[in-house]
Amino acid sequence: MLNLKRLKATAALMLALATPLTGAASITASIIAAAPAQAQGSRFGDVPDSHWAEDFITALVDRGVIAGFPDGSFKPEAPVTRAQFSSLLKGAFNKGKTRSAINFVDVASNHWAMSAIDNAYETGFLSGYPGSIFRPEQNIPREQVLVSLANGLNYSANAPVNEVLGYYNDGGNISNFARSPIAAATEEKIVVNYPTVTSLNPNRNATRAEVAAFLYQALVREGNAPAIASGYIVSLDPVATQFKIPAGTSIPVTYTRDKILLLPDETLPITFDLKTNITTQNGKVLIPADSKVKGQLVPAGSGTKFVAEQLIYPDGTTQSVNAVSQIITKTETVNKGSDLTRIVRNSAIGTAAAAAISAVTGDRAIATEELLIGAGAGAIAGLIQNFLGRNSVDLIVVEPETDLDITLGSDLLVSTR
Questions:
Q1: What is the pLDDT of residues 60-74, one digit of tens each?
Q2: Cα–Cα distance between 207 and 53 in angstroms, integer?
């Protein structure tokens, strides 16, 4: 059951957590994408749905920019040659020529990528090496891919280059020729770094998965593709310190016992547990697991409902919360001669309900602090008098695992933790 609750929490919160606090700093692009691309399930055996680049790859395959291999694989970790990259550029962008072609001495007239190489040169995406050399079979490093995209798409850095590149923990490894273009590419959100978003690895050969991500981000920047939500897209936008979980969002809570028994007119102070992290789409924790939700079970028509009043975080800090559960009307009748062991097994019992059960059954063993919630065992003796002479009593039965999703009545502003 707990796994189901976790899935429900995730499903409810993914929609909710796309909303930053109005007026606060803007949120990273991976969260605020208004209309993220919805890629279908992966078609490649070596690119599972959980692969960090699966959405980028699938989107480019759907556009006919990139393809897999005859064996059904994509080989996401394979390197990309300069000739292959030229072909991908031609498939991704329809850009006018800015210079005349030259004859590269190492690209034969019958080379499979000659047309793409000429196009990459003429459109300003790629240049050769001294001596009219292109090196078509050379694997292309990550920094060259980013330089190519920045140059071909005419990006230029707005902020000081060293300031922008200071974002990367290995920015000092960027070649001098690549620093300004990579700063520009960074500002335009072209850079995608996996697994550590602050590590550029500029001199490492780019993989097919990485090139797919770079190309797709360039298409997004050009307005030719919808944004894909990813926590690995480098963004220099300030990250919001507060997030808004909108009113109407459902948050599941749990309890240490299977059920709670109380009288229909009984009010019980009670604290429930949150057993899973509530996070943003890119994993920032907003409400940590093991936080608690404090409030009361209060009479509601012919049943009861939980009214949440306060979040208690694991570090002891608190926050007011406006949320309620559904109205719970399930009942159980306790008669004289009822099997008390069955009734109270793994139950929490309100003090008034315990007094009623004791009066009807004549069994005082129920008056234990371990089972009671509310005023405690000391109040039972006085309450029992109210129920003497009855042959039965109807109790409200609350089953926390199924009854106690709480729905926010107003927006909840929370900070990342």
A1: 999 999 999 999 999
A2: 11
Cα separation, 373 vs 340, whole angstroms: 18
pLDDT score, position 346 = 83
| Both tokens assigned to 49 | 């749905």
- CA 307 vs CA 318, 325, 330, 352, 405: distances in Å: 16, 7, 18, 19, 11
Taken in order 103, 105, 109, 110, the sign of the CA dihedral is: negative
Please answer whether residues 304 and 264 qualify as being in contact, where contact means their C-beta atoms are separated by less than 8 angstroms. yes
Given a contact cutoff of 8 angstroms between Cβ atoms, the answer to whether 89 and 148 are in contact is yes
Low-confidence ranges of the chain (pLDDT < 50): 1-41, 369
pTM exceeds 0.90, yes or no: no
Tokens of 159: 């902020």
Answer yes or no: are the C-beta atoms of 407 and 323 closer than 8 Å: yes
Question: CB atoms < 10 A from the CB of 352, how many?
Answer: 22
Burial track 289-324 (b if 16+ CB lie within 10 A, e otherwise): eebebebebebbeebbbbbbbebbbeeeeeeebebb
Tokens of 251: 């948050």
Check: CB of residue 161 under 8 Å from CB of residue 171: no
**What is the Cα–Cα distance from 339 to 17, expressed in whole angstroms?**
47
In the numeric block, which tokens belong to residue 401?
A: 């695992």
CA distances from 36 to 31, 44, 274, 281 (A): 10, 22, 29, 12
Angle in degrees, 0-180, between the axes of helices 208-221 and 142-152, rounded to the nearest 10 = 20
